Amino acid sequence: MASMSVFFTWLILLPKTFALFFISHKLASFCLHLHFKTPNKVDHQQLLSNRVKSLSESATLEMTRKSRELRDKGVDVITLSIGEPDFNTPEAVKQAAIQAIEDNQSHYPPVPGIMELRKAISAKLLRDNALKYNPSQIIVSNGAKQSIMNAMFALLDEGDEVIIPAPYWVSYPEMVKLAGGSPVVIPSTVEQDFKILPEQLEAAITHRTKAFIFSSPCNPSGSVYSQVELAGLAKVFARYPQVMIFSDEIYEYIQFGQKHESIAFFEDVFDRVILINGLSKGFAMTGWRVGYMAAPQWLADACNTIQGQYTSGSSTISQAAALQAVLTDPKNSPEIQDMLKQFENRRNLLFSLLSTIEGVVPNMPQGAFYMFPDISWYFGKTDGNVTIRNSYDLCLYLLAEAHVALVSGDAFGCDDCIRFSYATSTELIEEAVRRVAVALHRLH
Ligand SMILES: Cc1ncc(COP(=O)(O)O)c(C=O)c1O
Protein backbone atom coordinates (compact mmCIF):
# COMPACT_ATOMS: atom_id res chain seq x y z
CA MET A 1 0.00 0.00 0.00
CA ALA A 2 2.76 2.35 1.03
CA SER A 3 4.74 1.56 -2.11
CA MET A 4 1.61 2.27 -4.20
CA SER A 5 1.29 5.73 -2.66
CA VAL A 6 5.01 6.46 -3.32
CA PHE A 7 4.48 5.34 -6.93
CA PHE A 8 1.47 7.69 -7.36
CA THR A 9 3.28 10.57 -5.67
CA TRP A 10 6.18 10.15 -8.16
CA LEU A 11 3.75 9.90 -11.04
CA ILE A 12 2.34 13.29 -10.04
CA LEU A 13 5.71 14.90 -9.22
CA LEU A 14 7.74 13.69 -12.18
CA PRO A 15 6.19 15.94 -14.87
CA LYS A 16 6.48 18.88 -12.47
CA THR A 17 10.17 18.10 -11.84
CA PHE A 18 10.77 17.88 -15.58
CA ALA A 19 8.93 21.14 -16.14
CA LEU A 20 10.99 22.82 -13.43
CA PHE A 21 14.24 21.46 -14.86
CA PHE A 22 13.24 22.59 -18.37
CA ILE A 23 12.37 26.12 -17.22
CA SER A 24 15.56 26.59 -15.17
CA HIS A 25 17.66 25.25 -18.08
CA LYS A 26 16.02 27.73 -20.44
CA LEU A 27 16.51 30.54 -17.93
CA ALA A 28 20.20 29.71 -17.48
CA SER A 29 20.90 29.61 -21.22
CA PHE A 30 18.99 32.88 -21.66
CA CYS A 31 21.17 34.51 -19.00
CA LEU A 32 24.33 33.14 -20.65
CA HIS A 33 23.10 34.46 -23.98
CA LEU A 34 22.56 37.90 -22.44
CA HIS A 35 26.00 37.83 -20.83
CA PHE A 36 27.88 37.05 -24.01
CA LYS A 37 25.68 38.75 -26.61
CA THR A 38 25.03 42.12 -24.95
CA PRO A 39 28.11 44.25 -25.59
CA ASN A 40 27.61 46.68 -22.69
CA LYS A 41 27.65 43.82 -20.18
CA VAL A 42 31.37 43.34 -20.93
CA ASP A 43 33.77 45.70 -19.18
CA HIS A 44 36.11 46.35 -22.08
CA GLN A 45 38.69 47.99 -19.80
CA GLN A 46 39.16 44.56 -18.21
CA LEU A 47 40.20 43.20 -21.59
CA LEU A 48 43.14 45.60 -21.84
CA SER A 49 46.57 44.45 -20.71
CA ASN A 50 47.98 45.77 -17.43
CA ARG A 51 50.86 47.20 -19.45
CA VAL A 52 48.51 49.41 -21.48
CA LYS A 53 46.46 50.38 -18.43
CA SER A 54 49.63 51.69 -16.76
CA LEU A 55 50.18 54.26 -19.55
CA SER A 56 49.02 57.88 -19.30
CA GLU A 57 47.54 60.01 -22.03
CA SER A 58 50.18 62.30 -23.56
CA ALA A 59 49.92 65.63 -21.69
CA THR A 60 50.59 67.59 -24.85
CA LEU A 61 47.78 65.81 -26.67
CA GLU A 62 45.48 66.29 -23.66
CA MET A 63 46.11 70.04 -23.71
CA THR A 64 45.55 70.17 -27.48
CA ARG A 65 42.24 68.35 -26.98
CA LYS A 66 41.12 70.69 -24.18
CA SER A 67 41.98 73.80 -26.18
CA ARG A 68 40.19 72.40 -29.24
CA GLU A 69 37.06 71.85 -27.13
CA LEU A 70 37.19 75.51 -26.05
CA ARG A 71 37.80 76.68 -29.60
CA ASP A 72 34.80 74.63 -30.80
CA LYS A 73 32.72 76.71 -28.38
CA GLY A 74 33.90 79.83 -30.20
CA VAL A 75 36.65 80.88 -27.74
CA ASP A 76 39.74 82.49 -29.27
CA VAL A 77 42.44 80.21 -27.82
CA ILE A 78 46.17 80.79 -28.46
CA THR A 79 47.98 77.48 -28.56
CA LEU A 80 51.52 77.49 -27.20
CA SER A 81 51.46 73.76 -26.49
CA ILE A 82 52.53 72.67 -29.95
CA GLY A 83 55.51 70.35 -30.44
CA GLU A 84 56.27 70.90 -34.09
CA PRO A 85 57.71 73.66 -36.31
CA ASP A 86 55.08 75.98 -37.81
CA PHE A 87 57.02 75.96 -41.11
CA ASN A 88 56.58 74.04 -44.33
CA THR A 89 58.83 71.23 -45.51
CA PRO A 90 61.52 72.64 -47.87
CA GLU A 91 60.52 72.71 -51.55
CA ALA A 92 63.26 70.36 -52.83
CA VAL A 93 62.23 67.73 -50.28
CA LYS A 94 58.59 67.90 -51.40
CA GLN A 95 59.67 67.61 -55.05
CA ALA A 96 61.68 64.45 -54.26
CA ALA A 97 58.53 62.85 -52.84
CA ILE A 98 56.46 63.89 -55.88
CA GLN A 99 59.11 62.36 -58.14
CA ALA A 100 59.01 59.11 -56.11
CA ILE A 101 55.25 58.93 -56.68
CA GLU A 102 55.70 59.57 -60.42
CA ASP A 103 58.36 56.83 -60.48
CA ASN A 104 55.88 54.38 -58.96
CA GLN A 105 57.93 53.76 -55.84
CA SER A 106 54.91 52.08 -54.37
CA HIS A 107 56.27 48.71 -53.28
CA TYR A 108 57.26 47.46 -49.84
CA PRO A 109 60.50 49.12 -48.74
CA PRO A 110 63.31 47.09 -47.13
CA VAL A 111 62.55 46.80 -43.39
CA PRO A 112 65.58 48.83 -42.15
CA GLY A 113 65.15 51.53 -44.83
CA ILE A 114 66.24 51.97 -48.45
CA MET A 115 70.00 51.47 -48.79
CA GLU A 116 70.55 54.84 -50.48
CA LEU A 117 69.02 56.60 -47.47
CA ARG A 118 71.01 54.55 -44.93
CA LYS A 119 74.20 55.39 -46.84
CA ALA A 120 73.25 59.09 -46.87
CA ILE A 121 72.59 59.02 -43.09
CA SER A 122 75.96 57.36 -42.54
CA ALA A 123 77.58 60.17 -44.62
CA LYS A 124 75.59 62.81 -42.69
CA LEU A 125 76.81 61.44 -39.35
CA LEU A 126 80.38 61.77 -40.62
CA ARG A 127 79.76 65.26 -42.12
CA ASP A 128 77.97 66.79 -39.12
CA ASN A 129 79.12 64.73 -36.13
CA ALA A 130 82.47 63.16 -37.11
CA LEU A 131 80.95 59.75 -36.26
CA LYS A 132 81.69 56.61 -38.26
CA TYR A 133 78.77 54.24 -38.75
CA ASN A 134 78.31 51.56 -41.40
CA PRO A 135 75.01 51.91 -43.27
CA SER A 136 74.16 48.47 -41.82
CA GLN A 137 74.15 50.06 -38.33
CA ILE A 138 71.39 52.47 -39.33
CA ILE A 139 67.71 51.56 -39.07
CA VAL A 140 65.15 53.95 -40.54
CA SER A 141 61.76 53.94 -38.78
CA ASN A 142 58.37 55.65 -38.69
CA GLY A 143 59.72 58.65 -36.81
CA ALA A 144 62.35 58.85 -34.08
CA LYS A 145 59.60 57.70 -31.73
CA GLN A 146 59.60 54.26 -33.28
CA SER A 147 63.40 54.13 -33.30
CA ILE A 148 63.38 54.66 -29.53
CA MET A 149 60.60 52.14 -29.01
CA ASN A 150 62.36 49.49 -31.14
CA ALA A 151 65.50 49.77 -29.02
CA MET A 152 63.50 49.73 -25.76
CA PHE A 153 61.78 46.50 -26.84
CA ALA A 154 65.14 45.07 -27.87
CA LEU A 155 66.83 45.85 -24.55
CA LEU A 156 64.36 45.77 -21.67
CA ASP A 157 63.09 42.92 -19.57
CA GLU A 158 60.57 43.21 -16.75
CA GLY A 159 62.07 45.28 -13.91
CA ASP A 160 65.06 46.67 -15.81
CA GLU A 161 65.67 50.29 -14.83
CA VAL A 162 66.06 53.17 -17.26
CA ILE A 163 67.44 56.44 -15.88
CA ILE A 164 65.73 59.57 -17.19
CA PRO A 165 66.85 63.08 -16.24
CA ALA A 166 63.93 65.44 -15.65
CA PRO A 167 62.62 67.47 -17.28
CA TYR A 168 62.21 64.80 -19.96
CA TRP A 169 60.21 64.34 -23.12
CA VAL A 170 56.75 63.12 -22.01
CA SER A 171 57.00 59.84 -23.91
CA TYR A 172 60.20 58.45 -22.35
CA PRO A 173 58.74 57.04 -19.11
CA GLU A 174 55.69 55.67 -20.94
CA MET A 175 57.89 53.98 -23.54
CA VAL A 176 60.02 52.40 -20.81
CA LYS A 177 56.86 51.08 -19.13
CA LEU A 178 55.45 49.81 -22.43
CA ALA A 179 58.60 47.74 -22.89
CA GLY A 180 58.28 46.36 -19.34
CA GLY A 181 61.01 48.49 -17.73
CA SER A 182 60.93 50.87 -14.74
CA PRO A 183 61.72 54.57 -15.19
CA VAL A 184 64.09 56.10 -12.61
CA VAL A 185 63.98 59.91 -12.66
CA ILE A 186 66.84 62.29 -11.79
CA PRO A 187 65.47 65.75 -10.94
CA SER A 188 67.01 69.05 -12.02
CA THR A 189 66.10 72.72 -11.59
CA VAL A 190 66.14 75.99 -13.51
CA GLU A 191 69.19 77.03 -11.42
CA GLN A 192 71.23 74.18 -12.95
CA ASP A 193 69.82 75.02 -16.39
CA PHE A 194 67.94 71.70 -16.24
CA LYS A 195 71.11 69.67 -16.80
CA ILE A 196 72.15 66.88 -14.46
CA LEU A 197 75.59 66.63 -12.87
CA PRO A 198 77.85 63.54 -13.11
CA GLU A 199 77.40 62.94 -9.34
CA GLN A 200 73.62 62.77 -9.80
CA LEU A 201 74.02 60.25 -12.60
CA GLU A 202 76.39 58.07 -10.59
CA ALA A 203 74.05 58.09 -7.57
CA ALA A 204 71.13 56.87 -9.74
CA ILE A 205 72.92 53.86 -11.27
CA THR A 206 72.14 50.48 -9.64
CA HIS A 207 72.80 46.86 -10.63
CA ARG A 208 69.38 46.95 -12.34
CA THR A 209 70.19 49.93 -14.56
CA LYS A 210 69.96 48.88 -18.19
CA ALA A 211 69.88 52.22 -19.94
CA PHE A 212 69.87 56.00 -19.74
CA ILE A 213 67.85 58.28 -22.04
CA PHE A 214 68.08 62.02 -22.58
CA SER A 215 67.63 64.63 -25.29
CA SER A 216 70.04 67.45 -26.08
CA PRO A 217 68.73 69.95 -27.14
CA CYS A 218 66.06 69.06 -24.64
CA ASN A 219 62.30 68.96 -24.97
CA PRO A 220 60.87 70.67 -22.83
CA SER A 221 63.68 72.94 -21.52
CA GLY A 222 65.64 73.71 -24.70
CA SER A 223 68.82 73.13 -22.66
CA VAL A 224 71.88 71.90 -24.52
CA TYR A 225 74.76 69.90 -23.02
CA SER A 226 78.21 71.24 -23.93
CA GLN A 227 81.08 68.94 -24.87
CA VAL A 228 82.59 69.39 -21.39
CA GLU A 229 79.29 68.48 -19.70
CA LEU A 230 78.87 65.40 -21.89
CA ALA A 231 82.46 64.39 -21.14
CA GLY A 232 81.56 64.45 -17.42
CA LEU A 233 78.63 62.08 -17.99
CA ALA A 234 80.68 59.85 -20.34
CA LYS A 235 83.31 59.46 -17.63
CA VAL A 236 80.67 58.05 -15.28
CA PHE A 237 79.29 55.71 -17.95
CA ALA A 238 82.82 54.43 -18.61
CA ARG A 239 82.70 52.89 -15.11
CA TYR A 240 79.40 51.07 -15.84
CA PRO A 241 79.85 49.10 -19.07
CA GLN A 242 76.43 47.41 -18.78
CA VAL A 243 74.51 50.69 -19.22
CA MET A 244 73.26 51.58 -22.71
CA ILE A 245 72.89 55.28 -23.59
CA PHE A 246 70.00 56.64 -25.68
CA SER A 247 71.13 59.99 -27.09
CA ASP A 248 68.08 61.68 -28.61
CA GLU A 249 69.36 64.36 -31.00
CA ILE A 250 66.13 65.11 -32.86
CA TYR A 251 66.59 68.89 -32.27
CA GLU A 252 70.23 68.84 -33.48
CA TYR A 253 69.67 71.48 -36.16
CA ILE A 254 67.63 73.84 -33.98
CA GLN A 255 70.37 75.44 -31.90
CA PHE A 256 71.33 79.07 -31.46
CA GLY A 257 75.03 79.70 -31.88
CA GLN A 258 76.85 76.67 -30.55
CA LYS A 259 77.93 73.56 -32.47
CA HIS A 260 75.98 70.37 -31.79
CA GLU A 261 77.72 67.83 -29.54
CA SER A 262 76.90 64.13 -29.25
CA ILE A 263 77.86 61.83 -26.39
CA ALA A 264 78.69 59.24 -29.09
CA PHE A 265 81.81 61.35 -29.75
CA PHE A 266 83.48 59.84 -26.65
CA GLU A 267 85.38 56.65 -27.46
CA ASP A 268 84.77 55.08 -24.04
CA VAL A 269 81.02 54.96 -24.63
CA PHE A 270 80.65 55.03 -28.43
CA ASP A 271 79.84 51.32 -28.70
CA ARG A 272 76.97 51.71 -26.20
CA VAL A 273 75.30 54.77 -27.66
CA ILE A 274 71.94 54.48 -29.41
CA LEU A 275 71.93 57.69 -31.42
CA ILE A 276 68.38 58.80 -32.24
CA ASN A 277 67.64 61.41 -34.87
CA GLY A 278 65.18 62.19 -37.63
CA LEU A 279 63.76 64.79 -39.98
CA SER A 280 60.69 65.86 -38.03
CA LYS A 281 62.04 68.97 -36.33
CA GLY A 282 65.10 70.16 -38.30
CA PHE A 283 63.38 69.86 -41.69
CA ALA A 284 59.82 70.56 -40.54
CA MET A 285 58.73 67.06 -41.58
CA THR A 286 56.69 65.81 -38.58
CA GLY A 287 53.96 64.36 -40.78
CA TRP A 288 56.29 62.40 -43.06
CA ARG A 289 57.24 60.03 -40.21
CA VAL A 290 60.89 59.36 -40.80
CA GLY A 291 63.39 58.91 -37.99
CA TYR A 292 66.44 56.75 -37.53
CA MET A 293 68.75 55.06 -35.10
CA ALA A 294 72.50 54.54 -35.37
CA ALA A 295 73.65 51.83 -32.98
CA PRO A 296 76.06 48.96 -32.40
CA GLN A 297 75.53 46.28 -35.06
CA TRP A 298 74.08 43.70 -32.63
CA LEU A 299 71.38 46.15 -31.51
CA ALA A 300 70.65 47.41 -35.04
CA ASP A 301 70.10 43.76 -36.07
CA ALA A 302 67.70 43.19 -33.16
CA CYS A 303 65.74 46.36 -34.00
CA ASN A 304 65.55 45.28 -37.63
CA THR A 305 63.95 41.99 -36.51
CA ILE A 306 61.46 43.81 -34.25
CA GLN A 307 60.50 46.35 -36.91
CA GLY A 308 60.11 43.57 -39.48
CA GLN A 309 57.43 41.96 -37.33
CA TYR A 310 55.25 44.95 -36.61
CA THR A 311 55.48 47.94 -38.93
CA SER A 312 58.00 47.07 -41.69
CA GLY A 313 59.85 50.03 -43.15
CA SER A 314 58.84 53.69 -43.29
CA SER A 315 56.80 54.70 -46.38
CA THR A 316 58.84 54.65 -49.62
CA ILE A 317 57.62 58.14 -50.57
CA SER A 318 58.67 59.56 -47.19
CA GLN A 319 62.05 57.88 -47.48
CA ALA A 320 62.59 59.49 -50.91
CA ALA A 321 61.82 62.87 -49.31
CA ALA A 322 64.07 62.07 -46.34
CA LEU A 323 66.93 61.18 -48.69
CA GLN A 324 66.76 64.65 -50.20
CA ALA A 325 66.70 66.22 -46.71
CA VAL A 326 69.61 64.15 -45.37
CA LEU A 327 71.72 65.03 -48.42
CA THR A 328 71.11 68.71 -47.69
CA ASP A 329 73.58 70.45 -45.43
CA PRO A 330 71.26 72.73 -43.40
CA LYS A 331 73.90 75.46 -43.50
CA ASN A 332 73.25 75.67 -47.26
CA SER A 333 69.45 75.64 -47.05
CA PRO A 334 67.91 79.15 -47.06
CA GLU A 335 64.60 77.69 -45.76
CA ILE A 336 66.25 76.02 -42.75
CA GLN A 337 68.38 79.09 -42.03
CA ASP A 338 65.30 81.32 -42.15
CA MET A 339 63.45 78.98 -39.76
CA LEU A 340 66.39 79.07 -37.32
CA LYS A 341 66.57 82.87 -37.42
CA GLN A 342 62.85 83.13 -36.68
CA PHE A 343 63.07 80.65 -33.80
CA GLU A 344 65.96 82.60 -32.29
CA ASN A 345 64.09 85.92 -32.56
CA ARG A 346 61.00 84.40 -30.97
CA ARG A 347 63.06 82.87 -28.16
CA ASN A 348 64.57 86.28 -27.38
CA LEU A 349 61.17 87.91 -27.49
CA LEU A 350 59.52 85.32 -25.24
CA PHE A 351 62.41 85.48 -22.76
CA SER A 352 62.24 89.25 -22.47
CA LEU A 353 58.42 89.24 -22.12
CA LEU A 354 58.33 86.49 -19.47
CA SER A 355 61.18 88.11 -17.53
CA THR A 356 58.93 91.08 -16.76
CA ILE A 357 56.21 89.00 -15.05
CA GLU A 358 56.44 88.75 -11.27
CA GLY A 359 57.05 85.19 -10.04
CA VAL A 360 58.00 83.78 -13.45
CA VAL A 361 61.64 82.64 -13.77
CA PRO A 362 62.36 81.81 -17.41
CA ASN A 363 65.42 79.83 -18.52
CA MET A 364 67.39 80.90 -21.61
CA PRO A 365 67.16 77.90 -23.97
CA GLN A 366 70.02 77.23 -26.37
CA GLY A 367 67.99 75.01 -28.69
CA ALA A 368 64.64 73.48 -29.73
CA PHE A 369 61.59 75.81 -29.64
CA TYR A 370 60.47 75.61 -26.04
CA MET A 371 60.96 77.67 -22.89
CA PHE A 372 60.42 76.14 -19.44
CA PRO A 373 59.98 78.88 -16.83
CA ASP A 374 59.68 78.12 -13.12
CA ILE A 375 56.25 79.31 -11.94
CA SER A 376 56.18 77.70 -8.48
CA TRP A 377 55.89 81.18 -6.89
CA TYR A 378 52.17 80.99 -7.75
CA PHE A 379 51.50 77.77 -5.81
CA GLY A 380 49.07 78.45 -2.98
CA LYS A 381 47.76 81.65 -4.59
CA THR A 382 44.12 82.17 -5.58
CA ASP A 383 41.93 84.47 -7.67
CA GLY A 384 39.10 84.07 -5.12
CA ASN A 385 37.63 81.03 -6.88
CA VAL A 386 40.46 78.73 -7.86
CA THR A 387 43.52 77.89 -5.75
CA ILE A 388 46.68 76.98 -7.64
CA ARG A 389 48.24 73.88 -6.08
CA ASN A 390 50.56 72.79 -8.89
CA SER A 391 51.61 73.36 -12.53
CA TYR A 392 48.57 71.47 -13.82
CA ASP A 393 46.18 73.76 -11.91
CA LEU A 394 48.03 76.78 -13.29
CA CYS A 395 47.74 75.48 -16.86
CA LEU A 396 44.02 74.86 -16.45
CA TYR A 397 43.62 78.33 -14.92
CA LEU A 398 45.52 79.98 -17.80
CA LEU A 399 43.49 78.07 -20.37
CA ALA A 400 40.21 79.06 -18.72
CA GLU A 401 41.12 82.67 -17.87
CA ALA A 402 43.73 83.74 -20.45
CA HIS A 403 42.67 81.33 -23.20
CA VAL A 404 46.28 80.30 -23.67
CA ALA A 405 47.16 76.60 -23.99
CA LEU A 406 50.45 75.55 -22.35
CA VAL A 407 51.72 72.23 -21.00
CA SER A 408 52.21 71.68 -17.27
CA GLY A 409 55.66 70.73 -16.02
CA ASP A 410 54.47 67.64 -14.12
CA ALA A 411 54.05 65.91 -17.49
CA PHE A 412 57.81 66.39 -18.00
CA GLY A 413 58.71 65.33 -14.45
CA CYS A 414 59.20 68.90 -13.16
CA ASP A 415 56.13 70.27 -11.43
CA ASP A 416 57.64 73.71 -10.69
CA CYS A 417 57.51 74.73 -14.37
CA ILE A 418 55.29 75.07 -17.41
CA ARG A 419 56.27 74.68 -21.07
CA PHE A 420 55.82 77.48 -23.58
CA SER A 421 56.30 76.45 -27.22
CA TYR A 422 57.30 79.36 -29.47
CA ALA A 423 56.50 77.51 -32.69
CA THR A 424 54.08 80.29 -33.58
CA SER A 425 54.15 83.89 -34.81
CA THR A 426 55.65 86.78 -32.81
CA GLU A 427 52.22 88.49 -32.80
CA LEU A 428 50.61 85.47 -31.13
CA ILE A 429 53.49 85.14 -28.65
CA GLU A 430 53.06 88.80 -27.64
CA GLU A 431 49.30 88.52 -27.27
CA ALA A 432 49.56 85.19 -25.37
CA VAL A 433 52.07 86.56 -22.84
CA ARG A 434 50.00 89.73 -22.38
CA ARG A 435 46.95 87.59 -21.50
CA VAL A 436 49.01 85.30 -19.24
CA ALA A 437 50.41 88.32 -17.37
CA VAL A 438 46.90 89.74 -16.77
CA ALA A 439 45.58 86.39 -15.49
CA LEU A 440 48.62 85.81 -13.24
CA HIS A 441 48.28 89.32 -11.83
CA ARG A 442 44.83 88.37 -10.48
CA LEU A 443 46.36 85.65 -8.27
CA HIS A 444 47.24 86.67 -4.73
C1 LIG B 1 62.75 64.77 -27.67
C2 LIG B 1 61.92 64.16 -28.75
N1 LIG B 1 62.27 62.98 -29.28
C3 LIG B 1 61.54 62.39 -30.25
C4 LIG B 1 60.41 62.99 -30.75
C5 LIG B 1 59.61 62.27 -31.81
O1 LIG B 1 60.06 62.56 -33.08
P1 LIG B 1 59.41 61.91 -34.37
O2 LIG B 1 58.41 62.89 -34.90
O3 LIG B 1 60.54 61.74 -35.33
O4 LIG B 1 58.80 60.62 -33.98
C6 LIG B 1 59.98 64.20 -30.22
C7 LIG B 1 58.73 64.84 -30.69
O5 LIG B 1 58.16 65.72 -30.10
C8 LIG B 1 60.76 64.82 -29.21
O6 LIG B 1 60.41 66.01 -28.68
Plain-language structure description:
With about 450 residues, the chain is an alpha/beta fold. It folds into 2 domains: about 50-85 and about 335-440, Aspartate Aminotransferase, domain 1; about 105-330, Aspartate Aminotransferase, domain 2. About 45% of the residues lie in helices and about 10% in strands. It is built from 16 helices and 12 strands. It has helices at about 1-35, 45, 50-55, 60-70, 90-100, 115-130, 145-155, 170-180, 200-205, 225-240, 265-270, 295-310, 315-325, 335-355, 390-400, 425-440; strands at about 80, 140, 160-165, 180-185, 210-215, 245-250, 275-280, 290-295, 370, 405, 405-410, 420. Strands 2-8-7-6-5-3-4 form a 7-stranded mixed β-sheet, with helices on both faces. Helix 11 (about 265-270) links the parallel strand 6 (about 245-250) and strand 7 (about 275-280). Helix 7 packs across helix 12 and helix 14 runs parallel beside helix 16. The longest helix is centred in the first third of the chain and has 36 residues, at about 1-35. The protein starts with a helix and ends with a helix. The model has no long low-confidence stretch (mean pLDDT about 90). Bound molecules: pyridoxal-5'-phosphate. Pyridoxal-5'-phosphate (PLP) binds next to helix 7.
